[in-house]
Amino acid sequence: MKKVFGLLTAVGLMTAPLAQASTVTVSGSTSVAHVMEVLAENYQNNTQTSVEVQSTGSSAGIRAAKDGTSMIGMSSRNVKDNELNSDTKEIVIARDGIAAAVNNANPVKNLTQEQISKIYRGEIKNWSEVGGEARPIVVVTRENGSGTRGAFEEIMKLQRTINGHKVTAISPTAQVGNGNGMIKTIVANNPYAIGYISLGSVDNSLRAIDVNGVEATDANIATGDYQIARPFIVLIDKNAPDNANSFIEYILSEDGQNIVAEEGYIRIN
């Protein structure tokens, strides 16, 4: 019995690395993770490959792909040249709008991009200045390192340069929420709050307002009429394992892109 047990143990030790190698590790943007988790679950159900998805933020995901701590990184903002190395590939897997979201009780239906920018800069402080009630605006933003925040700041021109470095122009009095879920909770529970979240995360708990008279819809993002939009990007090393490349191939396939659309995002093919 001891010999048999020893043999089984040896076999287990030999096969353990193989089992571990079959796991694809993915980390990064919390916005991309929303759809990535669904893609991973469906992929696992049809293959022998396990996929682990971690929400760590876009900046962390980019670093993880670059230094090899994750096979695949996720970013919901454009990646800067100095964040990559020559072996890192960027692949757009979907597109997403960023919704300026308000409480369902808020009467304001439309804002211009300039008005939203001024609200986040702290230049417009009261809803009465944009057609709402005479109440102070509660401004809610994402945390530093968030891809959604990075994309929002870039699109809305909410960055300024100090000593050659770009810094945020968002008012320091803005409340900070970690992740789409926290932003939704704050806005859904405060009739005078405004926050920005991934369009794919909008539900009945709050309302996406029109921007420049254009509704935040997939169709309007696809045509370019709704301009607060960004790509969902995955990053992978050119020498990444086959199972990581196979998972990305699945994401870009018809089945994968159907899931992207079903989850409320815009497919790329």
Short description:
Involved in the system for phosphate transport across the cytoplasmic membrane. Helices cover 38% and strands 25% of the residues.
Task: Explain this structure.
There is one protein chain. The chain is of the alpha/beta class and 269 residues long. The chain has 2 domains: 2-96 and 231-262, 3-Layer(aba) Sandwich (D-Maltodextrin-Binding Protein, domain 2), CATH 3.40.190.10; 97-229, D-Maltodextrin-Binding Protein, domain 2 (3-Layer(aba) Sandwich). It is 38% helix and 25% strand. It has 9 helices and 13 strands. The protein has helices spanning 2-21, 30-46, 58-67, 113-121, 147-155, 179-188, 218-223, 242-252, 254-262, and strands at 23-28, 50-55, 72-75, 88-102, 110-111, 138-142, 159-162, 165-168, 175-177, 193-198, 207-208, 210-211, 229-237. Strands 1, 2, 3, 4, 6, 9, 10, 11 and 13 form a 9-stranded mixed sheet that branches. A two-stranded parallel ribbon has the order 5-12. The radius of gyration is 21 Å and the shape is globular.
